[in-house]
Specification:
Elements (H helix, E strand, L loop, with lengths): L1 H24 L23 H8 L4 E5 L2 E7 L7 E7 L4 E6 L3 H4 L8 H8 L4 E5 L4 E10 L2 E10 L4 E8 L8
Antiparallel strand pairs: 1-2, 2-3, 3-4, 5-6, 6-7, 7-8
Amino acid sequence: MVGSVHFRLRRWIAVCGAVAAFAISACDSSGRAYEDLRLARLTEGKSTEQEVRQLFGEPTAVRDVAGGKGLVYPLGPEGPHTLLMKIGADGKYLGREDLLARSNLDRITPGMKERDVLVALGRPGHAKKNPLKRQTTWEWHFNDRVDTRMFVVTFDESGTVVSTAVEEDPRRFGGR
């Protein structure tokens, strides 16, 4: 009886240790959690653009960033992260930025154009036209601390932002 309790306790400690090791390994060298475990295979300043493309495939967009270029990768259909993988002029991987970080969403303001929003956030997960209102709505799902929420941008017929909103993710309650 005592031996089986001791065995279960040792097994529980081993499982907790494995979980802790996995959690630690799922962070980059600065302690920031990986949005995708493929990032663990990349090393800033050493990995190359070719290695990024081998792991993540073709980017949905390529854009100029300070000191090089950025490769845009939405993670999953309507996923809560869109990564901008920064590549230096020498072709080396310089790190990543989550375009759907709350601080980036806060930069979207009325008066901006569709193109500016696309550059800031990447492709929306969902877009719909509202012909009666003469508006178009774009939606992105994003992680807001522990919850997934939805960021909604509404454009008028000229493609200008008229409003933004953060809403509960309807998927949490059985919606689309």
